[in-house]
Amino acid sequence: MKIKYHLIQEEKHTKARLGTIETNYGVVETPMFMPVGTRATVKMLTPEELYEMHSGVILANTYHLWLRPGEDLVAKAGGLHQFMNYHGPILTDSGGYQVFSLAKPKDITEEGVYFKSHIDGAKLFLTPEKSIEIQNKLDSDIAMSFDECPPASATHEYMKKSVERTIRWAERGKKAHQNPNQSLFGIVQGGAYQDLREFSAIETVKLDFDGYSIGGVANDNESKEDMYKAIDYSIPYLPKDKPRYLMGVGEPADIIEGVMRGIDMFDCVLPTRIARHGNAFTKHGKINVKNAQYKEDFTPIEETCDCYTCRNYTKAYIRHLLNVEESLGGRLLSIHNIRFLIRLTEELREAIQENRILEYREEFYQNYFPKKKD
User: Fold this and answer.
1) Which residues in the chain are classed under CATH 3.20.20.105?
2) Per CATH, domain 4-268 is 3.20.20.105
3) C-alpha span between 226 and 65 (Å, rounded)
4) 34 neighbors 266 (Cβ within 8 angstroms)
5) Which residue in the list 139, 264, 267, 297 is annotated as catalytic?
6) Would you call 72 a catalytic residue per the annotation?
7) pLDDT digits (tens, 9 = 90+) for 93-144
8) Would the pTM of this model clear 0.90, i.e. be above it?
9) pLDDT tens figures, 188-210
10) Residue 226 bears catalytic tag
11) Where are the beta strands (DSSP E) in the chain?
């Protein structure tokens, strides 16, 4: 079945909203953080560990799965859920972000994008139709339209042409979509240009997708100000009865700011990526567990955290694992970091329900950014 979004409550003081999304694999609550499983696995973690973290939707990457092991093999296995044994909802991105990081401007045509494989340099060509065909075969619950991902530094002239092409590609992708059990999201682009964000949102909504995402905010080291502008310029034109997804964003403060502006869904590789380098989220900011100060620290990463790692292991032990390059160290920090962001969205849902999200943000920031205290 297609997903169904239900708006439960709008927070009184902001645009934050509480909702649910009905999927083929149960009901998930929003706002939510979605762990990223690029190659049909959230790095180093099992589905059972994800369930214990209260993970709902997870992501997989169309480009990477197209190259290895191939969409036909995944389809033969019964689709992504069977292949990776994850019995929760899965969203696949279009592959656009990876493709455009590999392509040169001259290789972007109206028909599609020419680029070289990051694995062996083989020449590849991806079109909106091909991206959708791959995602249909992967059989995710939510597929994403194929869009151009220009850098934030692009000129207004280039960005305008890019937005117009993305809308044409979205229409082509929608026509190519053949999986009746898979929902399809449109993507709003336009950089930090208000007129282009508004135009992109209005024209994309006319195509009547099952949900809408705001893209182009994690492509080119955009400033926070530009990210928030992109949301503010887009949200007023997106329907209230469908989910809104901010792509590639996972810093705790950005999740809070996004929720307050009306975003329902977030994803990012950040929690697992920083974990592999020894970093952990805490309510008092990020810490690096490899630092010498934790050598004899026999307390958990965070006393109030309910994750498997914090219930069972100390900073001293995790530091030891990291320093001797045992992969368990990165695994344990990944569990904690993902649970931290999922727990953040759980707390945000509670704050929306109680109409106190401004107070929640103030309290969170005072702890997370202690230097900002008066």
Assistant:
1) 4-268
2) yes
3) 31
4) yes
5) 267
6) no
7) 999 988 888 888 889 999 999 999 999 999 999 999 999 999 999 999 999 9
8) yes
9) 999 999 999 999 999 999 999 99
10) no
11) 4-10, 17-23, 26-30, 32-35, 58-61, 90-93, 113-116, 123-126, 142-144, 183-188, 211-214, 244-246, 265-268, 279-280, 287-288
